[in-house]
Amino acid sequence: MNLQNLKRNDKLLEQLAGEYVLGTLRGGARRRFERWLRDDVIVKRAVAEWQDRLHPMAEFAPSAQPSPQVWQAIEKQLKLAPAPVRQDRRSFWLGLREDLSFWRGLGMASTALATILVTVMLTRQPEPAMQTMSFVATLSDEKAQPVMVVTGDAKRRQMTVKVVMPQNIAADRSLELWAVPKQGAPRSLGLVANNGTVVLPMPEDATPESIPVLAISLEPKGGSPNPNAPSGPVIFKGAWVQI
Fold first, then answer.
1. How far apart are CA 107 and CA 10, in angstroms?
2. What average pLDDT does this structure show over 158-162?
3. Residue 110 has pLDDT above 70, yes or no
4. Which of 7, 68, 92, 219 ranks highest by number of CB atoms within 10 Å?
5. Nearest to 162 by CA among 190, 135, 137, 131
6. Which positions ≥6 away from 52 have C-beta within 8 Å?
């Protein structure tokens, strides 16, 4: 595979650019891609587009505390030898290890970007009988576990809500999908199931520019009695992005 062949294969270029931004492209393949990235404007544009799609997702994921093995792996990879730490001055790496804001950002980015990359890759696969999806959101719980994937078809004006982690919902409760705009009150998009797939109408203005976030609330049977806001807790949420 050379650069010219890559530029003629849009699907492969998209896949490699997405994996590069996420950090899953490794070894010789990553080094080769980085050489192309330095020299070619088309490759640079593909990487920049993936950065625009994926990086905002980190804002919506909850914090994640890494295990002790993470620090041990960093020490091993950087070949850091154990050294005594003076009480009046902590080492840079120890301070970094204990910096919760650093680990919070790392946890948010890794979880959210991995989830959205898988979702986007799946929705971009060509299928003869389907229209290309224009928008996607991965709705996750407070532990950053993906629960639902929402895709929006701009041509058909419909949203498809697929449950990837079935939920146990009481018989007297319903799950309701909400559009959370940049300004103004949330807007109900309809009820969704606790398992399987549901198709809902998509408003014409349901774009990431006006509606950056989608959310699911737990409501009384039939939905929230207030059309302008959830009456129950918001249990899942995620960024609504264009693909």
1. 31
2. 93
3. no
4. 219
5. 137
6. none
- 53-99 residue pLDDT tens: 766 555 455 556 667 777 777 777 776 655 554 444 444 334 433 44
Closest to 112 measured CA to CA, from 170, 62, 155? 62
Tell how far CA 158 is from the center of its chain.
21
The number of angstroms, rounded, from the C-alpha of 217 to the middle of its chain's C-alpha atoms is 19
DSSP states of the chain as a string?
--HHHHHH-HHHHHHHHHHHHHT---HHHHHHHHHHHHH-HHHHHHHHHHHHHHGGGGGGSPP-PPPHHHHHHHHHHHTPPP---BTTB--HHHHHHH-HHHHHHHHHHHHHHHHHHHHHHHHTS--TTSPPP-EEEEEE-TT--EEEEEEEETTTTEEEEEESS-----TTEEEEEEEE-SSS--EEEEEE-SSSEEEEE--TT-STTT--EEEEEEEETTS-S-TTS-SS-EEEEEE-EE-
Structure tokens at 63: 């914090």
- In angstroms, the CA 63 to CA 109 distance is 10
- Would you kindly state where each structural domain of the chain is located, as residue ranges? 1-125, 128-242
- Residue located via tokens 């840079």: 92
pTM of the full structure: 0.51
pLDDT band at 19 (very low <50, low <70, confident <90, very high): confident
